[in-house]
From TrEMBL:
Gene3D superfamilies: Glycosidases, Immunoglobulins. The keyword Signal applies. It comes from Nonomuraea monospora. SUPFAM superfamilies: (Trans)glycosidases. Residues 57-373 form the Glycosyl hydrolase-like domain. The lineage of its organism: Bacteria, Bacillati, Actinomycetota, Actinomycetes, Streptosporangiales. Keywords: Signal. This is Family 10 glycosylhydrolase. PANTHER family: GLYCOSYL HYDROLASE DIGH (PTHR43405).
């Protein structure tokens, strides 16, 4: 949950003539013979990608369900209204060439899906534990997949309740059944990260979702041990005495989080190899004042304040990606955006961990910082991302702000950087392989169609420029669409290329088809 994040950030600172289709490699000239002949592709070096149009880039948006921030827009609405509101969000994201959604399915040990382990979320019906009469998760996933988007299921691991009374919870709530798992802190109820039983339960909940639903990723946000509350103590003394084994309290707490991260990582990939597991930590790991290898910043330290050691996860390879929340503008005195982007880029360098950046879209227009009153600040931050080879994309908080387009900032972002679609970055350790190239490609007017390829989750459609001299699939400058099914209606006549994509976006060779 990111309620209150503005305060934290400020303080811490995309007549028919049908010809036979044929397969050719990414470097082959479209002016080659129309026959199915084998043409040697030029060396890869001959195809230089245009950095303005990266072929692979994750572009995501967080959809927060807690306190009805993004979806459902209001508790107690009909299923049809909830569906329509969700489709509106996805259509807005698709219009902006986004290719991933991060949907909060477990805000506080509750479920926005049918679960035997935790009660229905109050954000669906208005009443915790009340059956909404439908299981939203298959719909949420299917609608994302229809639009060629990855679906990451977002879990909050340790929040048990927004209140601190176990008696007020539904009878089947784990915190009510196991009050010894909980710690009251700052008027809320948290699971104790130091208890093995808590780690087992959280892992079981996540594995259950991965097993039963076609999710593409499992996602944690920045909440681990709770953010500090003045005058409050997180009382985990008994667990520390039992399990601390001579460690310092802070080291033990970080170790508990690291254990959960490793346990979830192992469980997710054991269930389904292709499912990604990643975390969006608070943007500052440590400041140089606490650690000479930290960032040149002066904000709150995730390592010291909430016991989240993202460096440890990266080094251990227990996450597939990190997505630090860099919700400060360029030039911020305490936490400069550019400084932090470079720091995180250096952290993942040489590792197998992908780096995405969490963008503070919700901050655009905020009057407490003049930088956010500039319509181009958000786009400029993506420019900083693009300057780093390590940054593989960005995710925006949050969906309602994407739809609202404050100060026209989203339109500016799309015009400058997202004018073309993009494939997802590939991570080889997750398995997968390129499907067969599409077969039977043909055109009827401007409608292209082909036979579905086995193992394909989607297809990329490129337009061959009239010059015919470019390497058409090297980057996204000629990419017109990424679609989920075996057809696409193009906007104009011409020559097109179609490739098959598996669910991880490994790409096949291209097939050529002419549309009249």
């Amino acid at each position: 949950m990111r309620t209150g994040r503005p305060l934290l950030a400020a303080a811490a600172l995309a007549v028919a003539t049908t010809t036979a289709a044929y397969v050719f490699g990414p470097g082959e000239s479209p002016a080659a013979s129309e026959k199915k002949t084998t043409v040697a592709a030029p060396p890869a070096a001959a195809c230089k990608a245009d950095a303005r149009y990266p072929k692979r880039e994750l572009r995501g948006v967080w959809i927060a369900t807690t306190q009805n921030i993004d979806w459902p827009s209001k508790a107690g609405q009909s299923a049809d209204r909830q569906k329509a509101d969700y489709v509106k969000i996805l259509d807005s994201a698709a219009k902006r060439n986004m290719n991933a959604v991060f949907v909060q399915v477990r805000p506080a040990s509750d479920a926005l899906y049918k679960s035997s382990l935790e009660p229905w979320s109050q954000y669906l019906t208005g009443t915790a534990g009340k059956d909404p009469g439908w299981d939203p998760l298959p719909f949420l996933i299917d609608e994302a997949h229809k639009r060629g988007m990855e679906f990451h299921a977002w879990f909050n691991p340790y929040r048990a309740s927004y209140g601190d009374s176990t008696a007020a919870l539904p009878a089947n709530h784990p915190a009510r059944q196991h009050p010894d798992w909980t710690v009251k802190y700052g008027g809320r109820l948290y699971y104790n990260p130091g208890l093995p039983a808590v780690r087992e339960h959280v892992t079981k909940v996540i594995t259950d979702v991965v097993d039963r639903y076609d999710v593409d990723g499992v996602h944690f946000d920045d909440y681990f041990y709770p953010y500090p509350v003045a005058g409050a103590k997180f009382d985990d003394t008994a667990a520390f005495r039992k399990y601390g084994k001579g460690d310092k309290l802070a080291d033990w707490r970080r170790g508990n989080v690291n254990k959960l991260v490793a346990q979830v990582d192992e469980a997710v990939h054991a269930a389904k190899e292709h499912v990604k597991f990643g975390i969006s930590p608070f943007g500052i790991w440590r400041n140089k004042a606490q650690d000479p290898t930290g960032s040149s910043t002066s904000g709150m330290s995730a390592y010291d304040s909430i016991y989240a050691d993202a460096r440890a996860w990266i080094k251990a390879g227990t996450v597939d990606y990190v997505l630090p929340q860099l919700y400060w503008p360029r030039g911020h005195k305490l936490a400069d955006y550019t400084t932090l982007t470079r720091w995180w880029s250096n952290e993942v360098k040489g590792s197998d961990v992908q780096l995405y950046i969490g963008q503070g879209l919700y901050r655009v227009g905020a009057k407490d910082d003049k930088a956010w009153l500039k319509p181009g600040e958000l786009a400029a931050q993506v420019g900083v991302n693009r300057a780093s080879k390590q940054v593989d994309g960005a995710v925006y908080f949050s969906a309602k702000n994407l739809v609202a387009n404050p100060l026209g900032s989203v339109d500016r972002l799309v015009k400058t950087y997202y004018s073309r679609p993009a494939l997802l970055p590939v991570k080889d350790s997750l398995g997968g392989s390129a499907p067969a190239a599409p077969a039977g490609a043909k055109a009827e007017g401007t409608k292209l169609s082909w036979k579905a390829s086995e193992g394909a989750r989607g297809y990329a459609v490129y337009q061959v420029p009239k010059s015919g001299k470019d390497c058409h699939t090297t980057d996204a400058r000629n990419l017109v669409a990424v679609v989920s099914g075996p057809s696409y209606t193009v906007k104009s006549a011409g020559t097109y290329l179609v490739t098959s994509l598996d669910r991880l976006h490994h790409e096949s060779k291209a097939v050529k088809v002419k549309a009249g």
